[in-house]
Records
---
Amino acid sequence: MNDTQINIGLGEHKLPLQGAENPSTEMQGTSPGSFALRATIGGSTTFSSPDTPGMPAPSSKTAHDFNPTPNANPVTQLEYARLGTITTEMKRVAQREPHLTAEQVRDEVATGRMIIPANRVHLAMGLDPMAIGRASLTKVNANMGASPVSSGIEEELEKLHWSVKWGADTVMDLSTGGDLNACRTAILRESTVPIGTVPIYSMIMDKKIEDLTPGMIFDELENQAKQGVDYFTIHAGVLHEHIPYIKDRLIGIVSRGGSLLAKWMIHHNKQNPMYDCFDDICDVMREYDVSFSLGDGLRPGGLADATDEAQIRELEVLGELTERAWAKGVQVMVEGPGHVPFDQIEYNMKLQRSLCHGAPFYVLGPLVTDMFPGYDHITSCIGATAAAYHGASMLCYVTPKEHLGLPKKDDVKQGCVAYKIAAHSADIALGIPGARDSDDELTKARAALNWQKHFDLSFDPDFARAMHDEDLDVDTDFCAMCGHDWCSVRISKEIQEFASGKDENYAWDKPKVSAALTVEQKEILEQRGVLTPEEVHKLATKVKGKMAITTEGKASCHSDAVDSETAKALQES
Ligand code: SF4
């Protein structure tokens, strides 16, 4: 038993309360609180789940160990923090996360367990600083970006604003088509949230990966750093010696950056240039305070390949690169999988915590089953909730279009909502002070059958109102789910001993006819219909003819192993 463990007895049953704070500021309700560990902000664990037996222990090292002499001419948030300085950005983070003081933010940044991804250029353009780390609330990233077959700058800007409206804390521009520079400039100009990119995409636009040189790498990093990009995904952890581990996988390499660099290494029979040039890459990034998102180029693309030799060997290298970046004064977070069976998620989170000395873990999902394409925002947000409880600091959303196509506006919303659910659920479970306050307020409105308050307090009020009014346009003492006689909440209100809805702030007098649905609410109801096969076919044929054809007459997205005629035939069929 942990010496902070507190057992509360309910008759014969002892609740395993480990000392984490109750996530309700006012200790409302009858629930005794979180089963997580007591938070040790400033220690090797901050908000943390209890370790299942066999989990790797936290590292005893921090960013301080890899730079014993702080840089007297600080540029990055990490360098300022290691000198003991509280920056304006740290103060802003503490303001946005009231459970933390500015001193705690500084101390967490100094240890490398928290990052503030804030390029100095983007700060000057209106970036609102935020933090990623286990001491702060769990964050959500939304991916967007034009592809060679779909979307343009206007559509991407719309997706940017849409994803921020639905709760994205950072946005990654993963464009691989159109004018990448113009699109990135427009996004940075309009974004108040940090923007991340995968710069290798721009390095090889209109070129073959085999032609990539160190000079091209530095030119593009400099270009994007000057534009104001806040964090770069750099796939420097996938090494030449890892490639043999891939051959027995069911689905090889699924990271674009990882597969491109593997192709480069095989072609040249040389080490990954991102690894070889890593210290110089740090120098470029330090100048603008661009943070690393160390890419997991060998992440599993299916459950059968999870936690395998390739993935773990790469993670060990990511630990080494974390130390090297810290020695150069650069902030680091580390990327993680992917597709992971539910039972392996805790181990994956705690191994990263150990190998990367607590540097924030930024995970994609993970999906906990592979057989629900079209619903992967759900399969992955189940894994994301577990990941956030056990160690991830930021969750990269997955939309219903994952594996199927470029997300459209509504897919972006569905992905954001799913991941806000995952992040918020984990924050409550971890006992982050105040994390449950909004839930408790909504519960009180629900108990009082105060429908308008219920909707106003919900994450998506229009959606909730539309759902309610689909069957009943009166706000009264029941809804269409059970009806008057069977409404347990109404019956509970009538039982004087424990009358629900007792909070006077939520009491309301009499049934009300609700206002007519707004245009948005009507649209929500209209979208509930399922598309007919004819409509699906009509949508599919809209993109016909938009596929880029190379001079050889082969679709640019097509495998080199397929000849041009077969590729064209497939495109036209
Ligand atoms: S009718 Fe049923 S679902 Fe609706 S408020 Fe009452 S108990 Fe809840």
---
Amino acid sequence: MFASNNVFSYFSTVLRLLSFSKVPADLVYFVTSDCNCNCKNCLFQESLNKTDRRSLQLSLEEVDKIAKRYGKNLVKLSLSGGEPFLRSDILEILGSFVTHTNVKIIDIPTNGSRPNVIADKVKCFVTTYQNVILEIQLSVDGTREIHEKIRGFPGLFELTLQTYQELDAVRKDHRNLKIKMNTLYQPDNIENIRELYELMLKNNCIFDRMQIVFPHGAHIQEETLDILNYDKFYELSQSILKSYPIYNKKDFHSLLFRAIKIERDNVLKKTIKNKNMGKICKAGKRNMVLDDIGTVYPCEPIWEPIGNIRDYGYSMEKICNSEAFKKFKQSKWGNQKCNCTWGNIALDEVVHNPKYYPKILFNLIKLLVNK
Ligand SMILES: C[S@@+](CC[C@H](N)C(=O)[O-])C[C@H]1O[C@@H](n2cnc3c(N)ncnc32)[C@H](O)[C@@H]1O
Ligand code: SF4
Ligand code: SF4
């Protein structure tokens, strides 16, 4: 089966690379800092829509060099931004990574504001690159009024539903396309998320995966964390992961990721309670962040740069060998050295540490039995 082969191949490659790779197997690339929304808790808000930044944006030729030099060590690419579908050369960017690296899974979050553009580009990608899983993640933060208030974009809810419908039509003929929904848990939507999920079902929106995420970033204050209350988040997140309808019951890829995320919540719960993410942090080793102007960061919550890839001949390996990265690791990785609420660190811990595999298997069996 296509999806199972691909996901097994992804995990076996990640595990194989772990032992000797000098560059992280997962890259998060913020392709643009342009955005047509104005979301209240956006993790990239400090960089959005700055005119002086646009002229510094990595060109397609530069992206091609980065992909070439990254080579076969890259297996998962996540785009971010800004709004990725505002970048007109998005297909060419993806093409570069598919051609030069070992990328098996590409994840693109979107605010869903451009249904036709998104559907056209996605259809073209999944038709051209049938061996790569493309996950499109629609960001929806609440029912109509709450979503549009949080995102500062009147009419966005309807556009997002339209985007879902157009993508759903593409998904029917392309098994390498997955449609996900991502909801950022925040003070304005805590009491609205269950209603949002019911509304999506009423609109016949059945996603391959749905998740709520706990916010991260320097702007998330202690008081906000108290309001957000991780126990409440945990209960909601677990009930969604365990009971939301499964779009395709033979889709092992999506079921496995659900099982992993069920375990991820447990790890995140422990680290948030103990205020000790540093204990499991391997930011920059398993996952690296590259922004639109070439700056490289080991993690999103603190945006502490370790250099610009232009100054390292477009080589991620050279940045990973730099003194700046060594200093970063020494000061952040380890018991009580640093703290944040970034779910990716907990997720990487679960994926890369075999001690969690029996639990993931148990979660997977439960999902299969209950479906
Ligand atoms: C930064 S956005 C970029 C892509 C696109 N503009 C969008 O909104 O989907 C990527 C994802 O991060 C989520 N996000 C935004 N701020 C966040 C934060 N502080 N913590 C965690 N996730 C956040 C968004 O809701 C979205 O699902
Ligand atoms: S749409 Fe995405 S990038 Fe734009 S402000 Fe919202 S979360 Fe940030
Ligand atoms: S623990 Fe520190 S270094 Fe690690 S991801 Fe969180 S903020 Fe970044």
---
Amino acid sequence: MTPLQWQESPQQAQPPGNRSSAVGKSDPWFAISITLIGLIIGFWLGRSRGVIRPIALGNPPTQIAVPVPKAPALAKARTIKMTAALWKFTPNVVRIKQGEKVTLEITGVSGTHGLSVPGLGINETIIQGNTVSVTLPTDKTGTFDFRCSIQCGSGHADMKGQIVIET
Ligand SMILES: [Cu+2]
């Protein structure tokens, strides 16, 4: 047949109103079905790609310990300067706290001396013009005598003092 002979089929000829009312009855169910299918597919895809994860019941998260900050006074290192001269250590009494980080800096002013602290395992030689640094162990408390350990002349026996470590 020729294009001119073409006729609308009865269904196509129906007025739009009739058609929409016929489809309108099934519309809510169709929408609900599509929505449900969409949700199921979406959920399944999410699970399979790890986007949705089941709630972990057995394994608590790994705990990472945060270091406990020390008291500021103890955490900060302290340097105590001392001089060794003929014939005295200055200062000759050093007071520090248990656990404190202390470096003793001894400078030789005159003569050659030795700083010996038997109770703390320290014995250093201090030559005139030089500076020696010693880290003091502060884990135990007490009064630790020190003395010059090198024969330095007539006042050698006077060269003594104490390191006092307090709680
Ligand atoms: Cu001496």
---
Amino acid sequence: MRKVFSYLFALLAVLVIISIVGVVLFVAFRSSPPSPPQFSVIAVDVYRMSFVSDPFQQSNLHFDAFFRVGLLARNPNKWKAISYDSPVHVYATFGGQNITGEGFIHQFHQPADDSNVLVASLAGFNMTATMAPQEQLWTDLVAGRVELELECDTILKGKSFHVDCPVVLQYIPETQAWSMQNTAQHGICG
Ligand SMILES: *[C@@H]1O[C@H](CO)[C@@H](O)[C@H](O)[C@H]1NC(C)=O
Ligand SMILES: *[C@@H]1O[C@H](CO)[C@@H](O)[C@H](O)[C@H]1NC(C)=O
């Protein structure tokens, strides 16, 4: 009889230890932050990207741009959702200068292991760049190849999250339109 009790006691002790370890692991898992989302650019539609000269100020060129961009946001976490606590703000830069204002993607909740396509419109009218990138942009536009960065900002669980996505746009004479060049290094945000 005593032996049975001591077996039961040992079994109970083992069960208690297993549950404590389980609870500790669960709490540690729940409180560790999820891995950040992975962004990539899947499309850039260029509606406008050109210099406009101010008729009253010939020397002062202005730049107009209008893009629609499609981003893929992937939640790499197998078990954790990602909450975007603020809208995703997207804007385009060239040579470190803003060439569009911000496009917005509404805040959303992304379940574990899920991917979403985010679409934003970026508009820049009468953007004045400093001289150096302006000349480079002019040269690149004429050459039909422009390297931009798409900057994305949002807030995840109270922490700001920023990635930039290098994108190469190329002018295709046959279609008379700009389109995104897809290569291994381009379009991946980090
Ligand atoms: C570029 O745009 C971002 C986002 O709107 C803004 O925070 C930043 O101040 C701008 N930079 C300049 C130089 O205007
Ligand atoms: C463009 O912006 C400049 C100032 O940077 C301003 O003087 C000019 O009137 C603007 N042109 C248009 C067409 O809005």
